[in-house]
Protein 1
Amino acid sequence: MLHWRSAVYSVRYFHVVVMVLMVARLAASLKCHQGRVVASTKGEVEGNFCLYYEVYPSLKCETFNQLYGFATLNTTMLNRKCGGFWEGSNVIAACFCNFDYCNHIDQVKQFIDNSVNEPSIITDVLTWKVIKDSKTQRSLVECLRDNMKSITRTEDLSDAHAVAIVIVYITVASLACICIVAVYRSPDRHAREVRATHCQFLEVILFQNK
């Protein structure tokens, strides 16, 4: 009987341990933005750092790709820091952080100035070889910051354009509804025909803006 109870307690203890580990793993899961900035996705990742970075063909900081990513790094010293690296013949300017969705441009902008004022990454990261010259580091991080500002301006213009389209659509739809009601309420046949023509014109505009 004692052996049976001991076995039951062991099984229960094992289940509790497994559940605790699963909860701890879920709690520790990091969420990052991923992929190209212009068409990114977001969600949980198998890593402990989120990244925002740009890839250049040279130190001139031209013709760049803007990317979100993640990595598993054996350090906590890179949190909220940015720096410049070599990857073969390419140059990378990257920012690192370790909390959920911290690699979005709006979040990175909150801490990138610290690395501009005081470059502090002095070790290699993954396969990236750190650029040891502090002036070059500062120049690359400044370039990264300036490029983020241009993306933000583009997103703001896109949002304003989308809002304008919605306003126009709602306005035309409202006028079309008013026009239809006026047609049915008009006692004069000629007036109904004129208003119906106006309504058809509004309907054409409405469907073209869908």
Note: Confidence is low (pLDDT under 50) at residues 7-27, 152-169.
Protein 2
Amino acid sequence: MVESLFLIFVLSLIVFIIVKTYFSESKDPILKKLKRHYHDNSDEKAVGGETEIFYYWDEGKSKNYINGMYVHSNEKGIYIKPTIFNFWLKNLYIPWSELQWKGEFRSYLAKKDVYFLCDIGVYIGVSRKHKCNKKGQIQIK
């Protein structure tokens, strides 16, 4: 009896966490802006990449993040694709022409590059291997 109650508790806790995360991220105004301006339907562009923490924030506000997003870059731009744990999020494609490099910050042990999206006034942080230098020239590492 105790084992079945424990199992029910664990399963309901998992469902609660998933539902809470879904609703909190679906109401986020910054994510809504990103989805509206940079939504990408094609999966072929987002192939590859590594799982990393994707940061986003407005000017003067604390950084928000989504853990476990596939981030891939090429000469056209940055592609951000959700993993199975973030299935409700949309694929994003942000061309290099929309990004202004603003510096870097530390995320735990990794350094992240900061880019500013001029059209919507949002900052994003991705790992340093996705690089566009200050003159707008792409340097993929």
Note: The helical segments are 2-26, 29-38.
Protein 3
Amino acid sequence: GSYVKNCSDKVDSVRNFTEITIISIGLIIFVVGASILNCEYRYTHSQNICVNINYRI
């Protein structure tokens, strides 16, 4: 019995880790995408701002 419980605990922790990883990657993609869109949006207003942001990164 203890082995089965141990195994299911591992599965749960792996599942939690996977969910956290997927959420983190999603957030990173969202932030990067938003900053790129923001940069393009500003680029249309004044071209220097976007260039400066890109150089700083």
Note: The radius of gyration is 21 Å.
